Amino acid sequence: MLLIGLTTFQIQSGHERAVRTASANLADTARITEEQVRGSLRVVRLMLRAIAEAPRNDTQALRRYMATRAKIVPEIRQALVANAQGVVTIATAPQIEGTDVGEYVFFREARVLPAGRDIYVAKPLPIGLDGSLVILISMPLTGPDGRFDGIAAVSLELGFFQALLKSVHSGEDGAGALLATPDGDIITRDPEPEVFAGKNIAKGSAFAQHRDKGGAANTFVHVAATDGIEKVFAIRTLTEPAMPPLVVIVARPLNGVLADWRTEALTMAGVVGALVLTILGLTGLASRHLIAMMASEERYRGLIETQNDLVVRFTLDERVVFANEAFARAHGRDVANAIGMSWRDFVYEEDHDATAQAIAEVTRPPAFRATVESRMRMEGGLRWVSWEGAAIRDMSGRIIEVQAVGRDITDWVENRERQSSLLRELDSSNRELEQFAYVASHDLREPLRMITSYLSLLERRYAASLNEDGHQFLDFARDGAKRMDMMVLDLLEFSRVGRVRDALGEVSLAEVISIAEENLRLRLVESGATLSIAPDLPVVIGSHGELIRLMQNLIGNAVKYRQPDRPLMVTISAERSESGWTCTVADNGIGIAPDYFERIFDIFQRLHSRSEYEGTGIGLAVCRKIVEHHGGRIWVESEPGVGSRFRFTLADQPAQSS
User: Fold this and answer.
1) Is the peptide bond before 124 cis (omega within 30 degrees of 0)?
2) Cis omega (within 30 of 0) for bond into 140
3) How far apart are CA 96 and CA 105, in angstroms?
4) What does pTM read for this prediction?
5) Which residues, 6 or more positions from 302, have their beta carbon under 8 angstroms from its beta carbon?
6) Which numeric CATH code is attached to 307-410?
7) Membrane-spanning regions, if any (predicted)?
8) What does the pLDDT look like over 353-380, one tens digit per residue?
């Protein structure tokens, strides 16, 4: 019975340890997901604030300004401003101007937001121009008298949040992540966002348990309402005052969590079962009863000694009475030398109190069990060990000893600490990025707009008084302000590469080039350029939006730096390489001297004067940053007067995590 009891204890301990470890890892994943959602919302919030602060007296100017702001987030369908009565007055899609949105939840809730909160995220609604589901995020506007004066809002594709959800869960069958409103309406989910978007999970789910328990973070083992699979859930609620209290849920199927434990438990149960059958057979032979008991004890010891886990048993006065070989070996001792020592001789001094408290819990009802993580002085130095303790009783039921089973978790603890460090760095990075985005989109550009306005005012008032030089000076100043504005916008675009993008997945190069060509249609027609695209372009692994930007920049560069005395020809092809594909964008333009092959990829580097070619010198720097974020490299092969070949590498398989 002792053998079966100890084996059962070890199996149960392993089960609890596996679930606890998975819950801790999943809680860290949910924390990271919450930070990413918060960062994405901050970008949209900054954009809405910029629209809210812009003058509304010039409809055309505000529409252009809103369209420019919307380009910061590729997933934005449209942006709009509605007055206090709910009528759309200005929109990036002019055909919806005049529409009454006063009865929509994104208008009603924005109007009654509590103090300190300035954006509202609605569940997906079928109000897009094509009837597809979109996420509406709105911000209330305030008039000069401080009263409600309408809303500014943007509509987002489901992929805005779905991409980051896909990047955090394990990908195994039954795993997933979702984002929901405080009322339980699903904003998006991965997998199958279109199936679940807009559905409510407030009742009969992990969501309800999270809400009932209170607090910002919880973990549960629960049968999912969506697919009937028992899962481990980690749930967090956004608590930043200005943000809506959205709920992040990340889940793994319990079956996958327990796969390794199940294999180990079946093996142990098989061995113990065989031992029990042997013991039962021997007990039938009364004359060999003592021999049978001794054989059983030896088999039990053999089973314990073959475990990699540390097993130790000690009396209530802290003296060790049993230790397996794994325990003794880890501490550089013989088993005989460990017997009689105090458990305190093995545990790091700073962890004595926590260990003693856990031992005290073992002797108290109702569980008579306890867990603790403590550092042990071992051969290789201090190591973290996770202990599961249980009470051992004599025939009368009195507790006489404590048995503990431990497993070295040093690597897991170090990974946990690294994750905590990464989270702190992520917090700092998000704050810096938010500050940069605000300065780039608002503080830096506001003085430029003022300079341009006053230059125009000077010209209107004193045009008759200015001579030719005076008019020329005004033109120079206005051109400088315009170029500075372009540089600020380009710098903001450069900073977004790799930070705000869709998840990496399979992307058709042919589709990417087709979209880039359509975006450049007017420039291609005006320049008389011919675009030759290879018919067998591959499918690669990448970010759809960033690869469009890459191809658009390279084709646009070919158009800009074409030879004036011959028709422009741009050829796009791809060939197999060792790690995936090498893509080429070739042209017959003015070419580049070898001395500048590296310099052209640096930010704000120009080889020509602005009178010859417009631009800020950031396009190829963006190209290099996009390619490097995809794990590839980009270079140029060129001959002045003949043309250039820009080449870059892309993978065709997802990167293997180490």
Assistant:
1) no
2) no
3) 17
4) 0.42
5) none
6) 3.30.450.20
7) none
8) 988 888 888 888 887 888 888 898 887 7
